[in-house]
Amino acid sequence: xxxxxxxxxxxxxxxxxxxxxxxxxxxxxxxxxxxxxxxxxxxxxxxxxxxxxxxxxxxxxxxxxxxxxxxxxxxxxxxxxxxxxxxxxxxxxxxxxxxxxxxxxxxxxxxxxxxxxxxxxxxxxxxxxxxxxxxxxxxxxxxxxxxxxxxxxxxxxxxxxxxxxxxxxxxxxxxxxxxxxxxxxxxxxxxxxxxxxxxxxxxxxxxxxxxxxxxxxxxxxxxxxxxxxxxxxxxxxxxxxxxxxxxxxxxxxxxxxxxxxxxxxxxxxxxxxxxxxxxxxxxxxxxxxxxxxxxxxxxxxxxxxxxxxxx
Length: 311
Description:
Elements: E1 12-13, E2 19-20, E3 22-25, H1 38-50, E4 55-57, H2 65-75, E5 82-87, E6 89-90, E7 99-100, H3 104-118, E8 123-129, H4 139-151, E9 155-161, E10 179-183, H5 197-204, E11 207-211, H6 223-229, H7 238-253, H8 258-267, E12 274-278, H9 282-294, H10 299-310
Parallel strand pairs: 3-4, 3-12, 4-5, 5-8, 8-9, 9-10, 10-11, 11-12
Antiparallel strand pairs: 1-2, 6-7
């Protein structure tokens, strides 16, 4: 497996014209992971904007997140941020309720609804959500629809929102996509994206969003619970748990919270063109912004974590 590269400038992304690498992922703001207060969610977005966050990611399946982001943007008097949303997966009852529509009509209506909710006339990036569930027999029509959105000026870039399956990989080309947003495959307990995915993307000049920086909470506030629950064979495997325990020791040695070490580790990886961080409330986004301002880890600590994972 190839190793991640220690970054020089952690703040800006060459793949996005020198814009910020930090992305506020809004999946926790809309209520799909548990109840939220809309006013608190709006306050979290406004706090982020006021403290330099200029990139946001949302989706129809994130509950009320698009509407909350739109209401916050309506109050914001500063520069318009970079906004991405998704099509293909629709709003469900919670994070585990999958409602899908990859038809041209369905994706068109979904995008129209998203633009209305966000109060925007276009989005900077549109992801095809849940690529592992896209019916490949209709992939040509799906891709044509996405490209039509781009031609019409409704979106500036097209991406894949999720980890592509092996069957989907032939469609990951620069002609089709500008960005891939992967999760659970590039963080402080798992570097499996370096087993081939990153090499493919770099060859195609496709940018990479590294999502789930805390590995669904294993590297954060669900550390003890995840160890207790054990591997689920799907999202969290035994190697993730073993690596998390080893990295927790490094965090303790550095007198640093595991979540801060994990986020700053991902900030330090050059192959992460952008890093998506989730925050459900004002307290969480405050901590994340503090970690961001602390910057990349010292190289010796970065190498220690990398070697621990790749051992």
